[in-house]
Each structure stands twice: as structure tokens, then as C-alpha cells.
Amino acid sequence: MIRNFQALIFSWKDKINIAFVGVSSFIFFMANSASASEPKPWQMDLQEPAGIIATKATDLHNFLLVVITLISVFVLGLLVYVCIKFREKPNVKPSKTSHNTLIEVIWTVVPVLILVVIAIPSFKLLYLTEADKPVDMVVKVSGAQWYWNYQYPDEDIAFDSYIIAEADLKEDQKRMLDVDNPLVVPEGTKIKFLITGNDVMHSFFVPSLALQVYSIAGRVNEIWTEVPMGKKKYYGQCNQICGVNHAYMPIVIQALPKDEYQQWLKEAKVKFANTKQSDFNKIALLDKKDIKEIK
Ligand SMILES: [Cu+2]
Description:
Elements (H helix, E strand, L loop, with lengths): L1 H7 L3 H24 E2 L13 H35 L15 H30 L6 E8 L2 E6 L4 E5 L21 E4 L2 E9 L4 E5 L4 E5 L5 E7 L4 E7 L11 E7 L1 H14 L16 H7 L1
Parallel strand pairs: 1-10, 2-6, 5-11
Antiparallel strand pairs: 2-3, 3-4, 6-9, 7-8, 7-10, 10-11
This protein binds copper (II) ion.
The site of copper (II) ion (CU) has 7 residues, from loops.
């Protein structure tokens, strides 16, 4: 019995080993999280926000979580109170009360006030995401069955972005998330995304940058975001069920330092020189001077 018990207790050596594995996995996790924004195993909360819009969206989410928790606890408390106070035993003859003007006014006015309190920060954030901010670059995103097409109108390049098949994955690539041609952008840049579709509805969804916009054929939706400083990959996925390969059209936005981005751009202009840009996919952008005249 004692021998069994001793066998169960870890020796000091085992403890040091476990601590070492724990610490090294933590360091690996932290190092990994510094270079990529992606979902984590057993993740409970939102992905770490990147940029001003995502930070504000996360703050709003945390505020709403408090509001909804307070409301749920209050309603649960009321239910428990009513169940105990008005149970059958002490109320053999039940009350037939059906109206109480004061309570009815309270349960109408209080929810309205709560909605107003929620609406103010909510509209502020919505306005920020929709506002026509001056941006550093424009990227056109087209959803297709089942891949993404990225076009840089100012650079006159376009290319398709496909998932990497499981059999072709390299060691540092993620299953179901990495792609052959990521959307490469310079770090610390405000970007306007023009989002459209080639066939059925898709949705361009990159949680850490708080981007989520429908891609619809015949329409151009737009949104802007600020990609923060730092060489980092932002992972996303199509989140509008678009057909049999819906799960296989991930999104990768790769932020690079400015000089590395210029180098990539140089190579991309050669690599994608023969990628045919169909007229359907082309968009006409106004020159900057035209925009000024309109304003
Ligand atoms: Cu889809």
C-alpha cells in the first residue's frame, strides 16, 4: 500500500521535468501568439484585438457582457423570489391581481433606458467603422467558390488565394488556415477593403481585426481597418455558408515591415504579371484629385 502510494508521488526529477515542459509550452504559446492572430485550443474569449476598431469592439463586447450578466442575474433572482413567495403552500387562495400601473411603467421605461445606454457606444463604433476615413491603401476582395481573390488597384496586381491542402502543409503552416498567397499589407497602415463576390454570398471575416463583411456579387461593400505595427499573420475564414467547400477558403492577412512589403510588391508584380484580371473583377477608382473635387 505504502509502496503504491510512493509510486503515485512524483519524484523531484519528475516535478522539474513537468515544470520545464509547462514553462516551455507557455513560452512557445506566447511566442506563437506574438506572430499570429488565430483561434487557440480551448479559447473562451475573443481573439486578442488588433488595431483601433478591434480594440473598441472588444471594449463594447466586455461592457455588454456586464450589462447582460446583471440583467440575467436580476431576472433569475425575480423568478426565484416569485417561486418561493407565491408557492402553493402559504397561498392556498391565490391572489387574482392582474395589473399594477407603477410596475408596468417601470418594466417599460427601464428596458428603454438600458437600450439607449447600449445604443450610444454601439452607434459610435458603427459610425467609426463606416466613416469615410482617409486611408493609406485600398484592397479589393472578391469571394468566389471557394477561394479569395485580392486586387491591389493602385499597384495593378491581382491574385487568387487558395487553402493549402493538408498533404502539402509545411511545418510552420496551420491546417485549414494557411493559404498559398496571403493578402500582404504593410504594418501600421490604414486600409480600405472593397468587398464583392463572384458567385454566391461569402463573408470576409478576420476576427482579430474586427472585419466581417458580406461579399455579394453585383455589390461592393466597404470597410476600413488599421493594421497595427508588427510583422504578424491575421487569420480568418469565410463565415457565410457558401457551398460544399465553405470550410476550405481561409483568409490570411500578412503584415510586413514597410521595406519587406516593398520587396514583396516587387516580386509580386513579376509573379502575378500573367494573372488575368477579368473586366468583371476590375474596379474603377477615382483619382485622389477627383475625390477632393467631389468633397
Ligand atoms: Cu463560405
